[in-house]
Amino acid sequence: MAEPVVDVHSAAAEQAAEIATARRDILRIATAGSVDDGKSTLIGRLLFDSKAVFEDQYAAIERASRGDYVDLALLTDGLRAEREQGITIDVAYRYFSTPRRTFILADTPGHVQYTRNMVTGASTADLAIVLVDARKGILEQSRRHAYLAALLRVPHLVVAVNKMDLVDWSEEAFAAVRDEFRAFAAKLEVPDLTVVPISALRGDNVVTRSDAAPWYDGPALLEHLESVEVAGDRNLTDVRFPVQYVIRPQSDAFHDYRGYAGTVASGVLRSGDPVQVLPSGRTTTIAGIDGPRGPVEEAFAPMAVTVRLADDLDVSRGDLLCGPEGAPEVTQDLDALVCWMADEPLRPRQRLAVKHTTRSVRAVVREVVHRLDVNTLDREQEAGELGLNDIGRVRLRTTQPLFVDDYTHNRATGRFILVDEATNATVGAGMLVPH
């Protein structure tokens, strides 16, 4: 996060409105599905048809293409290993814009052994696109990724039934996939599901509506992405502001300035509002809020700001500002669903570091309660440990208290990562669940 600059030369209302508009128009997307369902081709098509590909980029992939058509998947499959194997391994991020919205696309792996990468890509997504090959129907990996998207509380899910041109745009083939997926999604309590028939290779129903499917009366994929409403998905009620950095310029111009920089996790901060500081529990009011280009009257997720308090309290990195009402739970006992990302299994009594918002503590694994079978949704109660790419319920005890919410209530303060202190490698991602 860039350090907020203390500057008083910008109109607060204009600044807040400008930031609000920019934040509202960003949509974070994660794509998922089985191997060879066409995820990378779809992203390449979106980039190409939205004019987000430079001429030299297009010329390069045209030369690298092996078949009798330009392989747009090469726009995202940039790793040599991926090109050799024909699968996506890493999470490839791409950015593009239309007049209506800015998009951040994460092309996540389809292969089962890279489930951890899919979790990484979808953890911050507003919308997930699960591709399904119209010829094959819904496969085990399709269900796995839909379940992971639901588990990560991605609020919007799109099923793109791809390669419709290979089934002659059969309405029956599309309806079979749509109805089966809707039945499966009902078990996952997916709040918003949209099913679109497409051909990523030929561009049908990707950016514009296609005449190939006269029986389909819904929007093209990009039309839906441009219009889906995500502002209501954010928690604007519970104030959560993890302190990342204490700003003390100690200059002649700002001799007594003390500000607390960070990114708003949820809720709305306003000048004059009462706040509580955790872990001390002391209360005060907000004296002012400074943005990157000057003071603002209010701040909301995910704005990066510096908050000034009316009283001189002891506040440091890792502390949390919250509203006096509806404060998070202060606890050293974590009960969470953990996706394990390391080769060595997660076992009871293992010691790890926990990174939660801006706070880092040490922890010990008290118990592996169960392991989830993401294909059948069954719980394996006698698992005892979590292997690579496994997801299970784990209980941990931390050396210092954390300020947490359930993940279903607040994605920002309800998640954490696990770090191996010996190697400093991220080995797990956790989502807090009710005790």
TrEMBL record:
The keyword Secreted does not apply. InterPro entries: CysN_GTP-bd, CysN_II, CysN_NoDQ_III, G_TR_CS, GTP-eEF1A_C, P-loop_NTPase, Small_GTP-bd, SO4_adenylTrfase_lsu. GO terms for molecular function: ATP binding; GTP binding; GTPase activity; sulfate adenylyltransferase (ATP) activity. Coiled coil: none annotated. GO terms for biological process: sulfur compound metabolic process. Pfam families: GTP-eEF1A_C, GTP_EFTU. The keyword Calcium does not apply. This is sulfate adenylyltransferase. Residues 24-236 form the Tr-type G domain. Its EC number is 2.7.7.4. NCBIfam families: CysN (TIGR02034), small_GTP (TIGR00231). Keywords: ATP-binding, GTP-binding, Nucleotide-binding, Nucleotidyltransferase, Transferase.
